[in-house]
Amino acid sequence: MKPEISRDAAGIERSLVAAPAPGYSSTLYQRLATAFVITVIYALAAAAAFHGYYTKWRMNDLVPSQSLVAMLDGTAYRPFVYRQLLPQTATIIERALPEDVRAAIERRLQTGQVGLRPPIGAEATKDGYVIRYRIVYYATFLSLFLALFALRSVCMAIGASPAAATAAPVIFALTIPILQTRGGFFYDLPELLAFALAARLALGGHVIPLILLAVPATLNKEAFLFYCLALPPLLMVRLSLRNAIVTALAAAFVSGLTYLVVRHAYAANEGQNAILQLFDNLRFYANPLNLFLIDQTYGLPLFKGYGIVVLGWFAVLMTYGWRMVPSSIQKHLMLAAIINVPLLLLFCAEGEVRNLSMLYVPIVALIAGALTRWLAINAAPTSPLSRC
Hints:
Elements: H1 9-16, H2 26-57, H3 68-73, H4 85-96, H5 99-111, H6 130-157, H7 162-179, H8 188-203, H9 207-220, H10 224-228, H11 232-235, H12 241-265, H13 278-286, E1 294-297, E2 300-303, H14 308-322, H15 327-347, H16 360-379
Protein backbone atom coordinates (compact mmCIF):
# COMPACT_ATOMS: atom_id res chain seq x y z
CA MET A 1 0.00 0.00 0.00
CA LYS A 2 1.35 3.44 -0.96
CA PRO A 3 2.16 5.74 1.96
CA GLU A 4 -0.11 8.73 2.44
CA ILE A 5 1.49 12.01 1.31
CA SER A 6 1.55 14.65 4.04
CA ARG A 7 0.18 18.07 3.19
CA ASP A 8 2.85 20.01 5.04
CA ALA A 9 6.10 20.96 3.29
CA ALA A 10 8.28 18.60 5.28
CA GLY A 11 5.99 15.68 4.52
CA ILE A 12 5.92 16.51 0.82
CA GLU A 13 9.69 16.69 0.74
CA ARG A 14 10.01 13.32 2.49
CA SER A 15 7.53 11.69 0.16
CA LEU A 16 9.38 12.87 -2.95
CA VAL A 17 12.86 11.72 -1.94
CA ALA A 18 13.56 8.39 -3.58
CA ALA A 19 15.31 5.64 -1.66
CA PRO A 20 19.06 5.76 -2.23
CA ALA A 21 20.70 3.12 -4.33
CA PRO A 22 22.31 0.27 -2.41
CA GLY A 23 25.84 1.05 -1.29
CA TYR A 24 25.33 4.81 -1.08
CA SER A 25 24.60 6.87 2.00
CA SER A 26 21.27 8.63 1.98
CA THR A 27 22.89 12.02 2.53
CA LEU A 28 25.39 11.63 -0.32
CA TYR A 29 22.72 10.39 -2.70
CA GLN A 30 20.40 13.30 -1.93
CA ARG A 31 23.20 15.84 -2.32
CA LEU A 32 24.26 14.45 -5.67
CA ALA A 33 20.66 14.23 -6.88
CA THR A 34 19.96 17.80 -5.75
CA ALA A 35 23.14 19.13 -7.34
CA PHE A 36 22.32 17.39 -10.62
CA VAL A 37 18.77 18.74 -10.75
CA ILE A 38 19.87 22.29 -9.89
CA THR A 39 22.64 22.16 -12.49
CA VAL A 40 20.20 21.17 -15.23
CA ILE A 41 17.71 23.85 -14.19
CA TYR A 42 20.42 26.52 -14.14
CA ALA A 43 21.77 25.42 -17.51
CA LEU A 44 18.31 25.74 -19.06
CA ALA A 45 17.58 29.08 -17.38
CA ALA A 46 20.96 30.51 -18.38
CA ALA A 47 20.49 29.25 -21.95
CA ALA A 48 17.07 30.88 -22.18
CA ALA A 49 18.27 34.21 -20.78
CA PHE A 50 21.41 34.16 -22.93
CA HIS A 51 19.35 33.42 -26.03
CA GLY A 52 17.03 36.28 -25.12
CA TYR A 53 20.03 38.60 -24.93
CA TYR A 54 21.79 37.33 -28.05
CA THR A 55 18.78 37.31 -30.36
CA LYS A 56 18.15 40.93 -29.41
CA TRP A 57 21.67 42.35 -29.55
CA ARG A 58 23.97 39.68 -31.07
CA MET A 59 27.54 40.83 -30.28
CA ASN A 60 26.68 44.26 -31.68
CA ASP A 61 27.83 42.91 -35.03
CA LEU A 62 28.51 45.44 -37.80
CA VAL A 63 28.71 48.31 -35.30
CA PRO A 64 32.35 49.41 -35.66
CA SER A 65 32.39 51.42 -32.44
CA GLN A 66 31.42 48.53 -30.16
CA SER A 67 31.21 45.18 -32.00
CA LEU A 68 33.00 42.08 -30.74
CA VAL A 69 35.19 42.06 -33.87
CA ALA A 70 36.26 45.64 -33.11
CA MET A 71 36.89 44.65 -29.50
CA LEU A 72 39.06 41.74 -30.64
CA ASP A 73 41.00 44.06 -32.95
CA GLY A 74 41.33 46.67 -30.21
CA THR A 75 39.78 49.30 -32.48
CA ALA A 76 36.44 49.75 -30.70
CA TYR A 77 35.64 53.18 -29.33
CA ARG A 78 36.30 54.16 -25.74
CA PRO A 79 34.93 53.15 -23.24
CA PHE A 80 33.73 49.93 -24.94
CA VAL A 81 37.26 48.87 -25.84
CA TYR A 82 38.21 48.82 -22.16
CA ARG A 83 36.07 45.69 -21.56
CA GLN A 84 38.78 43.27 -22.68
CA LEU A 85 38.52 40.27 -20.34
CA LEU A 86 36.73 37.91 -22.71
CA PRO A 87 38.22 39.26 -25.98
CA GLN A 88 41.76 38.93 -24.65
CA THR A 89 41.01 35.50 -23.20
CA ALA A 90 39.74 34.36 -26.59
CA THR A 91 42.81 35.75 -28.34
CA ILE A 92 45.19 34.01 -25.93
CA ILE A 93 43.40 30.68 -26.37
CA GLU A 94 43.41 30.95 -30.16
CA ARG A 95 47.09 31.89 -30.33
CA ALA A 96 47.97 28.90 -28.14
CA LEU A 97 46.58 26.52 -30.77
CA PRO A 98 48.90 25.08 -33.43
CA GLU A 99 48.23 26.54 -36.88
CA ASP A 100 46.87 23.32 -38.39
CA VAL A 101 44.64 22.69 -35.38
CA ARG A 102 43.34 26.25 -35.51
CA ALA A 103 42.55 25.96 -39.22
CA ALA A 104 40.75 22.63 -38.72
CA ILE A 105 38.65 23.98 -35.85
CA GLU A 106 37.74 27.10 -37.81
CA ARG A 107 36.58 25.06 -40.82
CA ARG A 108 34.55 22.80 -38.53
CA LEU A 109 32.88 25.71 -36.79
CA GLN A 110 32.07 27.50 -40.05
CA THR A 111 30.32 24.47 -41.52
CA GLY A 112 28.99 22.87 -38.36
CA GLN A 113 25.41 21.64 -38.13
CA VAL A 114 23.00 20.93 -35.26
CA GLY A 115 24.92 21.59 -32.03
CA LEU A 116 27.85 23.29 -33.77
CA ARG A 117 25.71 25.47 -36.03
CA PRO A 118 27.23 29.00 -36.13
CA PRO A 119 25.57 31.75 -34.08
CA ILE A 120 23.23 34.04 -35.99
CA GLY A 121 25.40 37.16 -35.66
CA ALA A 122 26.48 38.76 -38.95
CA GLU A 123 30.15 38.50 -38.00
CA ALA A 124 30.04 35.07 -36.35
CA THR A 125 31.67 33.39 -39.37
CA LYS A 126 33.93 36.24 -40.47
CA ASP A 127 37.33 34.98 -41.58
CA GLY A 128 39.93 35.28 -38.86
CA TYR A 129 37.39 35.65 -36.06
CA VAL A 130 35.42 32.40 -36.05
CA ILE A 131 37.17 30.75 -33.11
CA ARG A 132 37.44 33.87 -30.99
CA TYR A 133 33.85 34.86 -31.64
CA ARG A 134 32.70 31.41 -30.57
CA ILE A 135 34.88 31.45 -27.43
CA VAL A 136 33.39 34.76 -26.31
CA TYR A 137 29.91 33.51 -27.23
CA TYR A 138 30.18 30.42 -25.02
CA ALA A 139 32.11 32.20 -22.26
CA THR A 140 29.30 34.75 -22.02
CA PHE A 141 26.77 31.96 -21.51
CA LEU A 142 29.08 30.21 -19.04
CA SER A 143 29.41 33.43 -17.04
CA LEU A 144 25.66 33.63 -16.57
CA PHE A 145 25.46 29.92 -15.75
CA LEU A 146 28.11 30.25 -13.03
CA ALA A 147 26.56 33.49 -11.78
CA LEU A 148 23.39 31.59 -10.88
CA PHE A 149 25.36 29.34 -8.52
CA ALA A 150 27.17 32.32 -7.01
CA LEU A 151 23.85 34.11 -6.46
CA ARG A 152 22.38 30.98 -4.89
CA SER A 153 25.34 30.85 -2.52
CA VAL A 154 24.73 34.48 -1.54
CA CYS A 155 21.06 33.74 -0.84
CA MET A 156 21.93 30.67 1.22
CA ALA A 157 24.52 32.67 3.18
CA ILE A 158 21.92 35.23 4.28
CA GLY A 159 19.50 32.59 5.50
CA ALA A 160 17.07 32.13 2.62
CA SER A 161 15.41 28.72 2.41
CA PRO A 162 17.11 26.29 0.01
CA ALA A 163 14.12 26.33 -2.35
CA ALA A 164 13.96 30.14 -2.41
CA ALA A 165 17.75 30.47 -2.77
CA THR A 166 17.63 28.12 -5.74
CA ALA A 167 14.66 29.75 -7.47
CA ALA A 168 15.57 33.42 -7.00
CA PRO A 169 18.58 33.46 -9.41
CA VAL A 170 16.50 31.74 -12.10
CA ILE A 171 13.71 34.28 -11.75
CA PHE A 172 16.12 37.17 -12.00
CA ALA A 173 18.07 35.68 -14.92
CA LEU A 174 14.94 35.48 -17.02
CA THR A 175 14.44 39.24 -16.59
CA ILE A 176 17.92 40.13 -17.89
CA PRO A 177 16.92 40.39 -21.60
CA ILE A 178 14.13 42.73 -20.52
CA LEU A 179 16.52 44.84 -18.44
CA GLN A 180 18.72 45.06 -21.55
CA THR A 181 16.06 47.09 -23.32
CA ARG A 182 18.22 50.07 -24.27
CA GLY A 183 21.36 48.09 -24.90
CA GLY A 184 22.96 44.73 -24.26
CA PHE A 185 26.59 43.63 -24.30
CA PHE A 186 28.43 40.37 -23.76
CA TYR A 187 30.27 41.83 -20.77
CA ASP A 188 26.99 42.39 -18.90
CA LEU A 189 26.83 38.71 -17.92
CA PRO A 190 30.42 38.32 -16.65
CA GLU A 191 29.75 41.51 -14.70
CA LEU A 192 26.87 39.80 -12.90
CA LEU A 193 29.20 36.90 -12.07
CA ALA A 194 31.86 39.29 -10.77
CA PHE A 195 29.38 41.15 -8.56
CA ALA A 196 27.90 37.91 -7.20
CA LEU A 197 31.35 36.51 -6.40
CA ALA A 198 32.37 39.78 -4.76
CA ALA A 199 29.25 39.78 -2.58
CA ARG A 200 29.78 36.15 -1.56
CA LEU A 201 33.46 36.73 -0.75
CA ALA A 202 32.53 39.82 1.25
CA LEU A 203 29.91 37.93 3.26
CA GLY A 204 32.50 35.28 4.06
CA GLY A 205 35.15 37.83 5.02
CA HIS A 206 37.55 36.53 2.35
CA VAL A 207 39.75 39.58 2.00
CA ILE A 208 42.57 38.44 -0.29
CA PRO A 209 40.35 36.65 -2.87
CA LEU A 210 38.10 39.71 -3.01
CA ILE A 211 41.03 42.03 -3.70
CA LEU A 212 42.41 39.66 -6.34
CA LEU A 213 38.98 39.44 -7.99
CA ALA A 214 39.21 43.17 -8.71
CA VAL A 215 41.69 42.59 -11.55
CA PRO A 216 39.63 40.32 -13.87
CA ALA A 217 36.38 41.99 -12.83
CA THR A 218 37.72 45.41 -13.86
CA LEU A 219 39.16 44.02 -17.08
CA ASN A 220 35.61 42.97 -17.85
CA LYS A 221 34.07 46.33 -16.91
CA GLU A 222 35.35 49.30 -14.95
CA ALA A 223 32.12 49.60 -12.94
CA PHE A 224 33.56 47.05 -10.51
CA LEU A 225 35.54 49.90 -8.92
CA PHE A 226 32.31 51.54 -7.78
CA TYR A 227 30.77 48.26 -6.67
CA CYS A 228 33.70 47.76 -4.28
CA LEU A 229 32.59 50.90 -2.45
CA ALA A 230 29.18 49.31 -1.75
CA LEU A 231 30.66 46.19 -0.10
CA PRO A 232 31.38 47.38 3.50
CA PRO A 233 27.93 46.34 4.85
CA LEU A 234 28.53 42.80 3.60
CA LEU A 235 32.13 42.73 4.82
CA MET A 236 30.98 43.81 8.30
CA VAL A 237 29.21 40.46 8.72
CA ARG A 238 32.67 39.00 9.49
CA LEU A 239 34.95 42.04 9.85
CA SER A 240 35.05 45.16 11.99
CA LEU A 241 33.92 48.46 10.49
CA ARG A 242 37.52 49.59 10.10
CA ASN A 243 38.67 46.38 8.41
CA ALA A 244 35.60 46.33 6.18
CA ILE A 245 36.27 49.84 4.92
CA VAL A 246 39.99 49.13 4.42
CA THR A 247 39.20 45.96 2.46
CA ALA A 248 36.66 47.72 0.24
CA LEU A 249 39.09 50.56 -0.44
CA ALA A 250 41.91 48.10 -1.17
CA ALA A 251 39.75 46.28 -3.71
CA ALA A 252 38.73 49.63 -5.23
CA PHE A 253 42.40 50.69 -5.37
CA VAL A 254 43.42 47.53 -7.25
CA SER A 255 40.43 48.00 -9.53
CA GLY A 256 41.44 51.60 -10.19
CA LEU A 257 45.03 50.63 -11.03
CA THR A 258 43.76 47.97 -13.43
CA TYR A 259 41.48 50.50 -15.10
CA LEU A 260 44.32 53.00 -15.52
CA VAL A 261 46.50 50.39 -17.21
CA VAL A 262 43.72 49.46 -19.66
CA ARG A 263 42.83 53.09 -20.23
CA HIS A 264 46.44 53.91 -21.07
CA ALA A 265 46.64 50.97 -23.50
CA TYR A 266 43.72 52.32 -25.53
CA ALA A 267 44.19 56.05 -25.00
CA ALA A 268 44.52 56.64 -28.75
CA ASN A 269 41.18 55.05 -29.64
CA GLU A 270 38.29 57.18 -30.77
CA GLY A 271 35.50 58.02 -28.35
CA GLN A 272 35.63 59.31 -24.81
CA ASN A 273 35.80 57.86 -21.32
CA ALA A 274 32.32 59.02 -20.39
CA ILE A 275 29.46 60.80 -22.12
CA LEU A 276 27.39 63.25 -20.06
CA GLN A 277 23.71 62.44 -20.59
CA LEU A 278 22.09 64.03 -17.55
CA PHE A 279 19.76 66.40 -19.37
CA ASP A 280 18.55 63.73 -21.82
CA ASN A 281 17.83 61.49 -18.85
CA LEU A 282 15.95 64.17 -16.93
CA ARG A 283 13.71 64.80 -19.94
CA PHE A 284 13.13 61.06 -20.43
CA TYR A 285 12.30 60.20 -16.82
CA ALA A 286 10.11 63.28 -16.45
CA ASN A 287 7.74 61.90 -19.10
CA PRO A 288 5.38 59.34 -17.48
CA LEU A 289 4.40 57.96 -20.90
CA ASN A 290 7.84 56.35 -21.13
CA LEU A 291 6.70 53.89 -18.47
CA PHE A 292 4.38 52.24 -21.00
CA LEU A 293 6.70 51.55 -23.93
CA ILE A 294 6.97 48.13 -25.62
CA ASP A 295 10.06 46.20 -26.69
CA GLN A 296 10.70 42.94 -28.52
CA THR A 297 11.99 40.33 -26.06
CA TYR A 298 12.03 36.54 -26.33
CA GLY A 299 10.45 37.00 -29.76
CA LEU A 300 7.38 38.76 -28.36
CA PRO A 301 6.26 42.38 -27.88
CA LEU A 302 6.78 42.74 -24.12
CA PHE A 303 7.30 45.60 -21.70
CA LYS A 304 10.57 47.51 -21.55
CA GLY A 305 13.03 47.25 -18.69
CA TYR A 306 12.12 50.75 -17.65
CA GLY A 307 8.36 50.34 -17.49
CA ILE A 308 5.44 50.18 -15.11
CA VAL A 309 5.25 46.38 -15.21
CA VAL A 310 8.90 45.66 -14.42
CA LEU A 311 9.21 48.42 -11.81
CA GLY A 312 5.97 47.33 -10.14
CA TRP A 313 7.01 43.67 -10.21
CA PHE A 314 10.35 44.37 -8.56
CA ALA A 315 8.69 46.71 -6.06
CA VAL A 316 6.33 43.96 -4.89
CA LEU A 317 9.12 41.41 -4.56
CA MET A 318 11.36 43.85 -2.72
CA THR A 319 8.55 44.91 -0.37
CA TYR A 320 7.82 41.33 0.65
CA GLY A 321 11.47 40.42 0.85
CA TRP A 322 12.76 43.45 2.75
CA ARG A 323 11.99 42.17 6.25
CA MET A 324 13.25 38.70 5.38
CA VAL A 325 16.84 39.67 4.62
CA PRO A 326 19.50 40.75 7.13
CA SER A 327 20.38 44.40 7.61
CA SER A 328 23.66 43.83 5.76
CA ILE A 329 21.73 43.26 2.53
CA GLN A 330 19.44 46.22 3.18
CA LYS A 331 22.39 48.54 3.79
CA HIS A 332 24.26 47.10 0.80
CA LEU A 333 21.29 47.82 -1.47
CA MET A 334 20.90 51.37 -0.18
CA LEU A 335 24.61 52.12 -0.51
CA ALA A 336 24.73 50.59 -4.00
CA ALA A 337 21.73 52.71 -5.02
CA ILE A 338 23.38 55.89 -3.66
CA ILE A 339 26.38 55.16 -5.89
CA ASN A 340 24.66 53.63 -8.92
CA VAL A 341 21.64 55.86 -9.53
CA PRO A 342 23.63 59.12 -9.97
CA LEU A 343 26.01 57.30 -12.33
CA LEU A 344 23.01 56.11 -14.35
CA LEU A 345 21.59 59.62 -14.60
CA LEU A 346 24.91 61.21 -15.48
CA PHE A 347 26.44 58.81 -17.97
CA CYS A 348 23.95 56.19 -19.23
CA ALA A 349 21.44 56.33 -22.06
CA GLU A 350 17.86 57.09 -21.15
CA GLY A 351 15.97 54.03 -19.88
CA GLU A 352 19.17 51.95 -19.82
CA VAL A 353 18.29 50.13 -16.60
CA ARG A 354 20.83 47.35 -17.25
CA ASN A 355 23.34 49.87 -15.89
CA LEU A 356 21.74 49.59 -12.47
CA SER A 357 23.76 46.38 -12.26
CA MET A 358 25.17 47.21 -8.83
CA LEU A 359 21.66 46.57 -7.48
CA TYR A 360 21.35 43.12 -9.05
CA VAL A 361 22.82 41.02 -6.24
CA PRO A 362 20.82 42.59 -3.39
CA ILE A 363 17.68 42.44 -5.53
CA VAL A 364 18.18 38.70 -6.02
CA ALA A 365 18.61 38.40 -2.24
CA LEU A 366 15.32 40.25 -1.73
CA ILE A 367 13.58 37.97 -4.23
CA ALA A 368 14.87 35.00 -2.23
CA GLY A 369 13.57 36.64 0.94
CA ALA A 370 10.12 37.12 -0.58
CA LEU A 371 10.04 33.52 -1.80
CA THR A 372 11.12 32.27 1.63
CA ARG A 373 8.25 34.19 3.17
CA TRP A 374 5.67 32.92 0.69
CA LEU A 375 6.87 29.33 0.93
CA ALA A 376 6.60 29.49 4.72
CA ILE A 377 3.04 30.81 4.47
CA ASN A 378 2.02 28.06 2.08
CA ALA A 379 3.68 25.40 4.24
CA ALA A 380 1.73 26.37 7.35
CA PRO A 381 -1.09 23.83 7.90
CA THR A 382 -3.43 26.52 9.27
CA SER A 383 -2.91 28.93 6.42
CA PRO A 384 -5.86 29.42 4.04
CA LEU A 385 -3.37 29.22 1.17
CA SER A 386 -2.49 25.64 2.13
CA ARG A 387 -6.07 24.57 1.48
CA CYS A 388 -6.20 26.05 -2.04
